[in-house]
Design a protein that fits this description.
CATH class of one domain: Mainly Beta
Radius of gyration: 26 Å
CATH architecture of one domain: 3 Solenoid
CATH superfamily of one domain: Single-stranded right-handed beta-helix, Pectin lyase-like
Helix content: under 10%
Distance between the termini: 64 Å
Number of helices: 4
Number of strands: 37
Oligomer: single chain
Structural class: mainly beta
């Protein structure tokens, strides 16, 4: 009986010790004793530290489960000694700081906030100012990166890393972040079962979003604009990308969205506006592209012949220089029920579907695919006559590349957001630089 009572008392005491209700809240004022590093060595698991002022102590290491909260105007400056904040423990939260002063290195991926082999890391509502890499997660599970603002400095590409960088992570949530002027805005490699929602990625040297070998991820309602090469999605399977906006990604090798060696992808409800190439599909299988809107692009859709068993349905093509281009015969893909603004057919039975097929692949688009310099003749009368003749009496374009059920009117799937060409310079998505408030 005594043993039973003692055991019950011991278990109750143990639960009280580890209970979150026993966690303490500490207040740290930068420049006053004890130093933040000293305080971090003394706090217990589950404690919260509220930080005031500017901390300049080199790399801050979070090696136990704590919550680090920055009060308004709180700054952590790494003094270019390496990482600014390094997280090595599970269940760490860092929130509300201005982070700056990571070291630029060609040998080390130094970051403003780096978490290595951790679970349940939370990085929320921070401003990362000119860090080499901004947020870097390696070997993490269940991380939440939310509400952060990231701005890179105007330097050479070898002096700038990625904004949000994940390597070998799973079950992450990346949402409501704003990233500008890094090398890649968001970069994933070996990242699985994660959700990427409502992020804005603008003005990067390379890609607004770049991921490889990253499976079963969901990309929803993100905005990618004015990036050097657009968005690249490579060597992955089972991806879901819907209600994203790909805007003004221009250049000789720029795309709104490049799909390279992708299997089983859903590309639905996206908006492609003012890109050199809206959507490029290269070596992909079983891609479903539905209810997307392609507007004012150079090439709306470039579908390479090595892509098979894909479906393009219920999309809208408006004001593009070329609606469709390919580099060979495409026999095993479906093109059906799209709206083409150049379609001039008729609808005698009034079912809002054209009674004659539409061939969006013109002679000149095939010629430019093989001889790029022929583009200089794109507005000539002779080219227009050749294209019209090819559509009336097709002889060179692949027989499979026709839409047997073209829509007579555009459906409303995506929304009416169409940015002005210079809108990025006017901060269209409400990007406010927190440095102005410090």
């Amino acid at each position: 009986m005594k043993k039973l009572v003692f055991r019950s008392w011991f278990l109750a005491t143990l639960m009280l010790v580890v209970s979150p209700a026993c966690a303490r809240t500490w207040v740290h004022h930068a420049g006053k004793a004890p130093a933040l590093k000293k305080l971090l060595s003394e706090v217990a698991t589950g404690d919260t530290i509220q930080v005031h002022g500017e901390v300049k102590e080199g790399t801050i290491v979070l090696d136990r489960s704590v919550v680090l909260l920055g009060e308004p105007g709180a700054i952590i400056d790494g003094q270019e000694k390496g990482e600014v904040v390094l997280i090595t423990a599970d269940d760490v939260t860092i929130e509300g700081f201005i982070i700056r002063g990571s070291r630029i290195s060609n040998l080390e991926d130094n970051a403003g906030i780096k978490a290595s082999e951790c679970r349940n890391t939370v990085v929320r509502n921070n401003f990362l100012d000119g860090c080499f890499f901004a947020i870097y997660l390696s070997g993490s599970k269940g991380a939440l990166v939310e509400g952060n603002s990231i701005v890179g400095h105007d330097v050479r590409d070898d002096q700038m890393g990625n904004g949000i960088h994940l390597w070998k992570c799973n079950s992450a949530i990346i949402r409501n972040n704003v990233v500008r002027n890094q090398r890649d805005g968001i970069y994933f490699e070996f990242v699985t079962d994660s959700k990427i929602h409502n992020n804005t990625s603008i003005g990067h040297i390379r890609y607004g979003l770049h991921f490889m070998f990253s499976h079963r991820n969901e990309y929803v309602s993100n905005h990618f604009e004015s990036n050097g090469a657009g968005v690249a999605v490579m060597y992955s399977h089972h991806i879901d990308m819907h209600h994203n906006r790909f805007v003004a990604n221009r250049g000789a090798s720029a795309y709104g969205l490049l799909l390279k060696e992708i299997n089983d992808g859903m590309i639905t409800g996206n908006l492609f506006v003012d890109n050199t190439t809206g959507l490029m599909v290269d070596g992909c299988n079983r891609i479903t592209a539905e209810r997307n809107e392609f507007r004012y692009n150079g090439w709306a859709l470039r579908l390479f012949a090595n892509s098979l068993f894909s479906t393009f349905k219920d999309n809208a093509f408006l004001g593009n220089t070329f609606d469709l281009s390919t580099n060979g015969d495409l026999m095993d893909n479906v093109l059906e029920g799209n709206y083409w603004d150049r379609y001039s057919g008729y609808d005698l039975d009034r079912d809002e579907v054209g009674d004659t097929p539409y061939r969006p692949l013109g002679f000149f688009s095939l010629l430019v695919e093989r001889i790029p310099y022929a583009m200089v003749f794109s507005r000539s009368l002779f080219v227009s006559l050749l294209d019209r003749a090819e559509r009336l009496l097709p002889s060179l374009t692949p027989e499979a590349m026709k839409d047997d059920r073209p829509l007579m009117r555009q459906q409303v799937w995506v929304g009416s957001y169409v940015p002005k060409m210079n809108e990025v310079n006017n901060d269209p998505v409400g990007l406010i630089d927190p440095r102005n408030d410090v």
